[in-house]
Amino acid sequence: MRYRSLVETSRSKRYVRLLPMLFFLYIVNFLDRVNISYAIDAGMFQYLGVSAKEVGIIASLASSLFFVGYFIPQIFSNLGINRYGVRKIFLIAFLAWGIITIATGFVTSVSQVYVLRFLLGIAEGPFFAGVMFYLSLWFLKPERATANSFFTAAIPISGIFGSLIAGAIFATYGNYPGWRYLFWYEGMLAIFGGLLAYFILTDFPSDAKWLSNDERSALEQAFKEEEVEKVKVSWTKALADLNVILLAIVYFLGVTSLYGYSIWLPSIISFIGKVNATIASFLSIVPYVIASISLILIARYADRRQNHRFVTFAVFLVAGIGLALSAATQSIFILSFMLFAIAAIGIYSFIATFWAVPQGYLSGDAAAAAIGLINAIGNLGGIAGPIVVGFLKSYTGSFVDGIYVMALFSILAGVITLLIRRS
C-alpha cells in the first residue's frame, strides 16, 4: 500500500529530526542525575564534615532523595504533554534542574545536599516518562524498541562522557574543588539543553512541517490502524490494570539494579581495584562502552523478531549472572572487572525493549498516565539501589554483598517479565 511506503520514507526523517536531540537531552539528564556518584568518590561528603564510616549511609540517602522528588510529577506531567506538547514542559524542567545543579556546587552542609537532590528529582521528573510517551506518538510498533534504544543509549554513553568529564575535572582541579566544578559545568549544560529543545523538537506529528502532507497523512493512518490493537480504558482505570502493575514491578527491580550499579560504579571499581578517583572514573568508561553498543543491537533484534518480552527477560539474566560471577571473583580484579562490565549489557539494555511493551499496550491519556505511573514507581528503585548497596558497604565493609543483591533483583525482574500478558 502506498501509505506504507510513505511511512517508511518518513522514518528516516523522524529519526534524524527527533532522536539526536532527545539523545543529547538524555545525556544531559543522566549526567545531572549521577554526577553525585563521582563527587562521592572524590570525597564530597568528607569535605562537608561526614566521617568516612558514615559516608555510605549519608551518600545513599542523598542519592535516594532525588527519587522521592522524582515520583511526584510523573503522571500529571505526562498528561500535560499529551494535551499541550513536550516543548513547554521540557523547557521549564531543564531550566529548573540546571539552576538546582549549579546550586549543588555551592553547598556547605549535608542538609543542603538533601534539599537540592529532592528538588532536582521534582525538576527532572517530567523528562524520561515524557520521552517514552512522546516516542509512542511518533514511532510505530515495529520501530519503537529501535527508537527507544537510540534514545536510551544515552545512558551508557553519558557514563562515558561523565567519566571523561569527571576524570578531566579532577585531574585539573583535584578532588577539591573539582567536585564543585562538576556540578557547575553540568548545570549550565542543562540550561542550554532546555533552550535548544524548545526550538528543535516538534510537539505532535500533525505539527511537523518538515514532513510532507502525504507523509503526515500516511503516518496518521498507520497510527489509527495500530490503535485498534490497543486496550481502550480511561487513564484512571489504566493505573489499576494488572499488566501496568506488573510492568511497574519489573521496572522497579531493573532500576534498583541500574542505580545501585551507576551510583556506586566508580566507588566499586576503586574498592575492588584499589585505585584512586581519577583512575576509577576513567575505568568506568569500559562498562558504558559495552552497554552502549549492545543496547542498540539488542533492540534492533527485538524489533525484527517482535519478541520484546523474551528479550527483556534474557538481558535481565545476563545482568544477574554477570553481577553474581563478578562478586564471586572479586579477589581477581581483572576477571571481576570484566564480568562486572559484561553485566552492564543487561543492566542498561533492558530499558529499550522493556518500554516497547507499555508503549504498544494503551493509547491517549491512558498510555500517558500508565507510562508515568510505571516510570514513577519503577524509579523508586533509584532509592532502593543506592541505599541497599551503601548500607551493605557500611555494615560489611565490602561491596560484594551489594553486588549479589543487585544480581538477585535483575533475575527476579526477568522472571516477572514472563508473567506479563501481550495485550
Helicity, in percent?
over 70%
What are the low-pLDDT stretches, counting only 5+ consecutive residues below 50?
A: none
Helix and strand content put the structural class at mainly alpha
Number of strands: 0
Structurally, the number of domains stands at 1
Per DSSP, the total helix count is 19
**CATH topology (level 3) name:** Growth Hormone, Chain: A
CATH evolutionary superfamily: MFS general substrate transporter like domains
CATH class category: Mainly Alpha
Order of helices and strands: HHHHHHHHHHHHHHHHHHH
The Cα radius of gyration reads 21 Å
Mean pLDDT comes to 88
Tell me the distance between the termini.
Answer: 27 Å
Q: What is the percentage of strand-forming residues?
A: under 5%
Assigned CATH architecture? Up-down Bundle
Shape label: globular
Organism: Saccharolobus solfataricus (strain ATCC 35092 / DSM 1617 / JCM 11322 / P2)
InterPro entries: MFS, MFS_dom, MFS_trans_sf
Subcellular location: Membrane
Protein name: Membrane transporter
Question: Would you give an account of this structure?
Answer:
There is one protein chain. With about 425 residues, the chain is mainly α. It has a single domain, classed as MFS general substrate transporter like domains (Growth Hormone, Chain: A, Up-down Bundle), CATH 1.20.1250. It has helices at about 1-40, 45, 55-70, 75-85, 85-105, 110-140, 145-150, 155-175, 175-200, 215-225, 235-240, 240-275, 275-285, 285-305, 310-330, 335-360, 365-380, 380-395, 400-415. Helix 1 runs parallel beside helix 8 (about 155-175) and helix 1 crosses helix 10. The mean pLDDT is about 90.
